[in-house]
Amino acid sequence: MIGRVPLTDLSWVPAACTLPTGEQPLRATAFDDLFGQAVTAVDRIENQRARLVVRPDPAIAAPSPI
Q1: Mean pLDDT, residues 7-20 taken together
Q2: Residue 61 within a domain
Q3: By C-alpha distance, which of 27, 23, 28, 21 is closest to 7?
Q4: 28 versus 4: which is more confidently predicted?
Q5: DSSP secondary structure letter of residue 41
Q6: Which site in 34, 52, 55, 64 is 20 to 30 Å from 2, CA atoms measured?
Q7: Does the residue 50 lie in any domain?
């Protein structure tokens, strides 16, 4: 993956998000870590769609401790 952009600006979170505001940064960090450690390729499908290729490792599919 070329470059990582941390999800520190939470303005992307939709107003309809049901995740409590205090947990949103934790979830964003979990996704940032997952994408940084597990994604091996990103294929642009359309302007707003991409296919993420994830390393085939059972530990990646394990539930997050969040």
Answers
A1: 67
A2: no
A3: 28
A4: 28
A5: E
A6: 64
A7: yes
Q: Compute the distance between CA of residue 47 and CA of residue 59 in angstroms, rounded to an integer.
A: 31
Terminal-residue alpha carbon distance, the chain: 25
Between CA 49 and CA 46 the distance in angstroms is: 5
Number of domains in the chain: 1
Compute the distance between CA of residue 15 and CA of residue 1 in angstroms, rounded to an integer.
29
**Residues 22-65: pLDDT tens digits?**
888 888 888 888 888 889 999 988 888 889 898 888 888 776 66
Give the ranges where the chain is alpha helix by DSSP (H).
Answer: 24-38, 58-61
Residues 36 and 4 sit within 8 Å (Cβ to Cβ)? yes
Query: Count of alpha carbons within 13 Å of 50, Cβ hemisphere only?
Result: 11
Amino acid letter, 45: I
